[in-house]
Design a protein that fits this description.
Structural class: mainly alpha
Number of strands: 0
Shape: globular
Number of domains: 1
CATH topology: Four Helix Bundle (Hemerythrin (Met), subunit A)
Strand content: under 5%
Length: about 150
């Protein structure tokens, strides 16, 4: 696939992340306050965390398939894909820094929990840091993806 097409798909996913955080801005603002979060709000924010990492992973899949020519397989492929993005390959330099990789690993772990659990197991105290930091992680992610796109 031509790099222009890959870039369009990456930019689409970046736009989706922006729309996601804009759509739930009122909840994200509340999460950053001292107000108590109810079960419905916690569940909604868990879904936002899930969607956020899905978009990140969709970008990584585009790069892995169309630039690296190598999509990890096996039971740990999600984590392997994340690691792959923080390493140089024969076709490109690292996409994300090791520091960002470690932050995104927390979102990946949460998404795995969310997909394989029931919403009544969600615990705001365990999610709060991910929710509160998501805007900053999004900015770091966008900066590093933009650096990659500029180098191509």
């Amino acid at each position: 696939m031509p790099r222009d097409s890959v870039e369009k798909k990456i930019r689409f996913e970046l736009d989706q992340i922006g729309k996601l955080l804009d759509k739930y801005d009122y909840l994200l603002t509340k999460a950053n306050s001292d107000e108590e979060m109810d079960d419905i709000e916690v569940t909604a924010l868990a879904s936002v965390l899930h969607s956020f990492y899905n978009a990140v992973e969709n970008i990584f899949l585009q790069i892995s398939k169309n630039i690296d020519g190598n999509v990890p397989r096996g039971s740990n492929w999600h984590k392997d894909l994340l690691i792959q993005m923080s390493e140089d390959t024969r076709n490109r330099e690292e996409i994300i820094s090791r520091e960002l990789q470690l932050k995104l690993l927390e979102y990946l772990a949460f998404r795995h929990f969310f997909r394989h659990s029931y919403s009544f197991y969600l615990d705001w105290d365990e999610m709060e840091e991910l929710v509160v930091n998501m805007g900053q992680v999004k900015e770091e992610f966008e900066e590093e993806i933009e650096d990659f796109l500029e180098k191509k």
